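Reopening this ticket.

The earlier resolution said the output was attached, but the attachment link was broken on my side. Pasting everything inline this time so it's all in one place.
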Amino acid sequence: MAFSVGACAGGGWWCIKRLSEARFLLNTPTSKIRSAAQGYVELYGVLHALDGGEVEAPLSGTPCLWWRFKIEEYDSDGKRRSWRVVERGVSEAWLRLKDGTGECLINPAGAEVRVSTRQVWRGSERHPRGLSGHGSLLGRLLSAGSEYRYTEERLHAGQPLYAIGDFRTQGGAEAFDLTLAQGAVVREWKSDFAGLLQRFDSNGDGQLDQAEWERMRQSARVEAQRRQQKRGDIPVHHQLRRPGESYPFILSTRGEDELAHGFYWQAAGAALVCLAGALAGAWLVANVLLPGLAAG
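Inline output:
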């Protein structure tokens, strides 16, 4: 009964989650990096290496931009045979995405990363390249007779990337909001009210009338524009990261339509699991629980 209820609840939750994510993917318009609004956006581009160069995948040693690996050990007790995960890891390296209008740095932490480059192979040592001391004689003796399966996924320079997440811009005139900057100047001047009156109280009555207030606002606007021009030489940095709300954060070498199509299939499968769990639960109630209660 517990298994039936769990299958029904889990299948229903996964169905709703995948349907919601597919809707976000299809309803979010694609933006250009240079003109993207601040907030939740969808980007298409090509991956490029960072200035520090590429990183090295831990299992294969292949140069790449990002990696994820899993090591499994073949487990057999005579009756049951299965692969048991003994180690896994994921890269923390940032990514650089370019689309022809600009570039954006991506922090992949918390993202659902779906890659097309996936390598699977087997070996007799826990670490195929002798990492973490397992390549020593003692490590080889301890792993003798064991079989391991290695799975490594990678992102490489030159690959296309679909990205949807929280977009933020820092620095430069492009990220400068004149209205907000004007308000900041006004608040700064009002903190020194005596100095404010000295500059803009023309009739000396100790307060700012409507005309004096408007002149102060225009002066604050000019000051904000001056600061904007001064900041214009500061480089613009665009970043994509995990959204603060419950929006999907997805990085994929496959396009939006293919992703949404896969999500719909997963939602359909989850709906079937939910339905099967509900039917099994109903059958148990009708044929096991109720007769048992009646007999008692």
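Reporter confirms the inline version is readable. The CA atoms of residues 30 and 42 lie 5 Å apart. Residues 177-231 form one domain.
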